[in-house]
Amino acid sequence: MKPDFEIAIRHLGVLYLHTGRYRAALRQMDRAFETGIDEWNARYFRGTLLTQLGEWDRARSDSGPQWVQLTQALIWLHDGDLARASGAAASLSESSGISRGERVANRRAGGYFKGQIALRQNHPEEAIVDFKDALHHWPHWSDPLWFEDCLADAYLQLGRLDEAILEYQRALRLYPGMGLPRFHLAEAYRRKGDRARAAAEYHKFLELWSHADSGIQEVAAARAQLFK
Fold first, then answer.
1. pLDDT tens by residue, 88-97
2. pLDDT tier for residue 71 given thresholds of 50, 70 and 90
Protein backbone atom coordinates (compact mmCIF):
# COMPACT_ATOMS: atom_id res chain seq x y z
CA MET A 1 0.00 0.00 0.00
CA LYS A 2 2.87 2.37 0.78
CA PRO A 3 6.18 1.10 -0.63
CA ASP A 4 8.26 3.69 1.27
CA PHE A 5 6.68 3.00 4.69
CA GLU A 6 9.85 3.16 6.78
CA ILE A 7 8.70 1.26 9.87
CA ALA A 8 7.36 -1.68 7.86
CA ILE A 9 10.54 -1.84 5.77
CA ARG A 10 12.78 -1.96 8.83
CA HIS A 11 10.64 -4.35 10.84
CA LEU A 12 10.32 -6.79 7.96
CA GLY A 13 14.12 -6.80 7.83
CA VAL A 14 14.22 -7.63 11.55
CA LEU A 15 11.81 -10.53 11.05
CA TYR A 16 13.96 -11.90 8.24
CA LEU A 17 17.01 -11.64 10.50
CA HIS A 18 15.39 -13.58 13.34
CA THR A 19 14.23 -16.36 11.03
CA GLY A 20 17.66 -16.96 9.53
CA ARG A 21 16.87 -15.20 6.25
CA TYR A 22 19.91 -12.97 6.44
CA ARG A 23 20.20 -12.23 2.75
CA ALA A 24 16.55 -11.22 2.54
CA ALA A 25 17.09 -8.98 5.56
CA LEU A 26 20.02 -7.32 3.84
CA ARG A 27 18.00 -6.82 0.66
CA GLN A 28 15.31 -5.22 2.77
CA MET A 29 17.81 -2.71 4.14
CA ASP A 30 19.08 -2.01 0.63
CA ARG A 31 15.47 -1.33 -0.30
CA ALA A 32 15.34 1.14 2.58
CA PHE A 33 18.06 3.19 0.90
CA GLU A 34 16.24 3.04 -2.42
CA THR A 35 13.03 4.40 -0.92
CA GLY A 36 14.87 7.32 0.65
CA ILE A 37 14.06 6.68 4.30
CA ASP A 38 16.12 8.13 7.13
CA GLU A 39 19.77 7.38 6.35
CA TRP A 40 20.81 7.07 9.99
CA ASN A 41 18.32 4.26 10.60
CA ALA A 42 19.09 2.56 7.30
CA ARG A 43 22.84 2.51 7.96
CA TYR A 44 22.31 1.36 11.54
CA PHE A 45 20.18 -1.58 10.46
CA ARG A 46 22.31 -2.55 7.51
CA GLY A 47 25.56 -2.30 9.47
CA THR A 48 24.15 -4.48 12.25
CA LEU A 49 22.88 -7.05 9.76
CA LEU A 50 26.29 -7.18 8.11
CA THR A 51 27.90 -8.03 11.47
CA GLN A 52 25.51 -10.97 11.81
CA LEU A 53 26.47 -12.13 8.32
CA GLY A 54 30.15 -11.89 9.24
CA GLU A 55 30.74 -9.27 6.55
CA TRP A 56 32.90 -7.14 8.79
CA ASP A 57 34.56 -4.98 6.14
CA ARG A 58 31.20 -3.93 4.73
CA ALA A 59 29.91 -3.30 8.24
CA ARG A 60 32.87 -1.03 8.95
CA SER A 61 32.16 0.88 5.76
CA ASP A 62 28.51 1.34 6.73
CA SER A 63 29.22 2.20 10.36
CA GLY A 64 31.87 4.86 10.33
CA PRO A 65 32.35 7.32 13.18
CA GLN A 66 29.30 9.33 12.14
CA TRP A 67 26.95 6.40 12.74
CA VAL A 68 25.58 4.53 15.74
CA GLN A 69 27.59 3.18 18.64
CA LEU A 70 25.81 -0.17 18.88
CA THR A 71 26.99 -1.33 15.48
CA GLN A 72 30.44 0.10 16.10
CA ALA A 73 30.63 -1.73 19.44
CA LEU A 74 29.87 -5.05 17.73
CA ILE A 75 32.73 -4.37 15.33
CA TRP A 76 35.13 -3.36 18.10
CA LEU A 77 34.31 -6.52 20.06
CA HIS A 78 35.00 -8.60 16.98
CA ASP A 79 38.28 -6.77 16.41
CA GLY A 80 39.33 -7.17 20.06
CA ASP A 81 39.38 -3.40 20.59
CA LEU A 82 38.06 -3.60 24.14
CA ALA A 83 38.99 -0.02 25.02
CA ARG A 84 36.70 1.48 22.42
CA ALA A 85 34.03 -1.16 23.07
CA SER A 86 34.14 -0.21 26.76
CA GLY A 87 33.66 3.43 25.86
CA ALA A 88 30.62 2.56 23.76
CA ALA A 89 29.21 0.37 26.54
CA ALA A 90 29.55 3.17 29.07
CA SER A 91 27.91 5.67 26.74
CA LEU A 92 25.00 3.35 25.97
CA SER A 93 24.53 2.58 29.67
CA GLU A 94 24.26 6.27 30.46
CA SER A 95 22.06 7.14 27.51
CA SER A 96 18.66 8.69 28.09
CA GLY A 97 17.49 6.89 24.95
CA ILE A 98 13.82 6.23 24.24
CA SER A 99 12.08 4.75 27.23
CA ARG A 100 9.10 2.57 28.00
CA GLY A 101 7.89 3.88 31.31
CA GLU A 102 10.96 4.13 33.54
CA ARG A 103 13.12 1.61 31.64
CA VAL A 104 15.56 3.24 29.23
CA ALA A 105 16.04 1.34 25.99
CA ASN A 106 19.73 1.78 25.16
CA ARG A 107 20.86 0.55 28.56
CA ARG A 108 20.22 -3.07 27.64
CA ALA A 109 22.80 -2.83 24.88
CA GLY A 110 25.20 -1.13 27.30
CA GLY A 111 24.88 -3.97 29.81
CA TYR A 112 25.31 -6.53 27.04
CA PHE A 113 28.59 -5.02 25.90
CA LYS A 114 29.87 -4.67 29.46
CA GLY A 115 29.17 -8.36 29.98
CA GLN A 116 30.89 -9.36 26.75
CA ILE A 117 33.96 -7.34 27.68
CA ALA A 118 34.07 -8.92 31.15
CA LEU A 119 33.92 -12.39 29.57
CA ARG A 120 36.82 -11.56 27.28
CA GLN A 121 38.80 -10.30 30.27
CA ASN A 122 38.12 -13.58 32.14
CA HIS A 123 35.82 -12.03 34.74
CA PRO A 124 32.85 -14.41 34.53
CA GLU A 125 31.02 -13.35 37.69
CA GLU A 126 31.24 -9.70 36.69
CA ALA A 127 29.87 -10.65 33.28
CA ILE A 128 26.91 -12.45 34.83
CA VAL A 129 26.06 -9.36 36.88
CA ASP A 130 26.26 -7.18 33.76
CA PHE A 131 24.00 -9.48 31.74
CA LYS A 132 21.46 -9.66 34.54
CA ASP A 133 21.46 -5.88 34.71
CA ALA A 134 20.99 -5.67 30.94
CA LEU A 135 17.84 -7.76 31.15
CA HIS A 136 16.25 -5.25 33.51
CA HIS A 137 15.99 -2.87 30.55
CA TRP A 138 14.00 -3.04 27.34
CA PRO A 139 15.67 -3.16 23.96
CA HIS A 140 14.66 -0.29 21.73
CA TRP A 141 11.31 -1.11 20.12
CA SER A 142 12.91 -1.25 16.66
CA ASP A 143 16.36 -2.68 17.43
CA PRO A 144 17.43 -5.55 15.16
CA LEU A 145 19.16 -7.27 18.11
CA TRP A 146 17.34 -7.85 21.41
CA PHE A 147 20.00 -9.61 23.57
CA GLU A 148 17.23 -11.51 25.42
CA ASP A 149 19.45 -14.60 25.52
CA CYS A 150 22.65 -12.85 26.59
CA LEU A 151 22.68 -14.32 30.11
CA ALA A 152 21.80 -17.80 28.85
CA ASP A 153 24.59 -17.62 26.27
CA ALA A 154 27.07 -16.65 28.98
CA TYR A 155 26.03 -19.59 31.16
CA LEU A 156 26.41 -21.92 28.18
CA GLN A 157 29.85 -20.52 27.34
CA LEU A 158 30.91 -21.00 30.97
CA GLY A 159 29.63 -24.58 31.06
CA ARG A 160 26.93 -23.80 33.62
CA LEU A 161 24.43 -25.93 31.76
CA ASP A 162 21.57 -26.15 34.26
CA GLU A 163 21.52 -22.37 34.63
CA ALA A 164 21.75 -21.96 30.87
CA ILE A 165 18.75 -24.24 30.33
CA LEU A 166 16.61 -22.37 32.84
CA GLU A 167 17.54 -19.02 31.32
CA TYR A 168 16.88 -20.15 27.72
CA GLN A 169 13.51 -21.48 28.87
CA ARG A 170 12.70 -18.10 30.43
CA ALA A 171 13.65 -16.22 27.27
CA LEU A 172 11.66 -18.62 25.08
CA ARG A 173 8.57 -18.29 27.25
CA LEU A 174 8.78 -14.58 26.56
CA TYR A 175 9.61 -14.88 22.84
CA PRO A 176 8.90 -18.46 21.70
CA GLY A 177 9.65 -17.67 18.06
CA MET A 178 13.33 -16.90 18.62
CA GLY A 179 15.42 -19.39 16.67
CA LEU A 180 18.98 -19.17 17.95
CA PRO A 181 18.05 -19.45 21.65
CA ARG A 182 16.11 -22.59 20.71
CA PHE A 183 19.20 -24.00 19.00
CA HIS A 184 21.41 -23.15 21.97
CA LEU A 185 18.92 -24.74 24.37
CA ALA A 186 19.26 -27.93 22.32
CA GLU A 187 23.04 -27.62 22.57
CA ALA A 188 22.82 -27.31 26.35
CA TYR A 189 20.70 -30.45 26.58
CA ARG A 190 23.10 -32.28 24.27
CA ARG A 191 26.08 -31.33 26.41
CA LYS A 192 24.24 -32.63 29.48
CA GLY A 193 23.67 -35.94 27.70
CA ASP A 194 19.87 -35.50 27.46
CA ARG A 195 19.52 -36.65 23.87
CA ALA A 196 15.71 -36.79 23.82
CA ARG A 197 15.22 -33.17 24.93
CA ALA A 198 18.06 -32.03 22.68
CA ALA A 199 16.43 -33.70 19.67
CA ALA A 200 13.07 -32.09 20.46
CA GLU A 201 14.64 -28.63 20.58
CA TYR A 202 16.66 -29.20 17.39
CA HIS A 203 13.40 -30.14 15.64
CA LYS A 204 11.68 -26.99 16.89
CA PHE A 205 14.63 -24.88 15.77
CA LEU A 206 14.59 -26.37 12.27
CA GLU A 207 10.85 -25.77 12.03
CA LEU A 208 11.32 -22.14 13.04
CA TRP A 209 14.14 -21.71 10.52
CA SER A 210 12.64 -23.83 7.75
CA HIS A 211 13.14 -20.98 5.28
CA ALA A 212 16.60 -19.98 6.50
CA ASP A 213 19.45 -19.32 4.10
CA SER A 214 21.50 -22.26 2.96
CA GLY A 215 24.88 -22.73 4.59
CA ILE A 216 23.97 -21.39 8.04
CA GLN A 217 26.19 -23.11 10.60
CA GLU A 218 23.48 -23.65 13.23
CA VAL A 219 21.07 -25.22 10.73
CA ALA A 220 23.76 -27.61 9.51
CA ALA A 221 24.70 -28.51 13.10
CA ALA A 222 21.09 -29.20 14.09
CA ARG A 223 20.58 -31.46 11.09
CA ALA A 224 23.84 -33.26 11.79
CA GLN A 225 22.78 -33.99 15.36
CA LEU A 226 19.39 -35.29 14.30
CA PHE A 227 20.54 -37.46 11.42
CA LYS A 228 23.95 -38.73 12.49
1. 888 877 766 5
2. confident
74 in the same domain as 54: no
Structural domain includes residue 75: yes
CATH of the domain at 35: 1.25.40
Its domain, for residue 25, covers: 1-63
Measured CA to CA, the distance from residue 51 to residue 45 in angstroms comes to 10
Cα separation values, 28 from 4, 52, 144, 187, 220, Å: 11, 15, 13, 31, 25
Residues 6+ apart with CB under 8 A from 59: 47, 48, 50, 51, 71, 74, 75
Residue 160 domain flag: no
Does 78 lie in the same domain as 55? no
The whole model's pTM is what? 0.89
Q: Which of 63, 86, 104 is the last residue of a domain?
A: 63
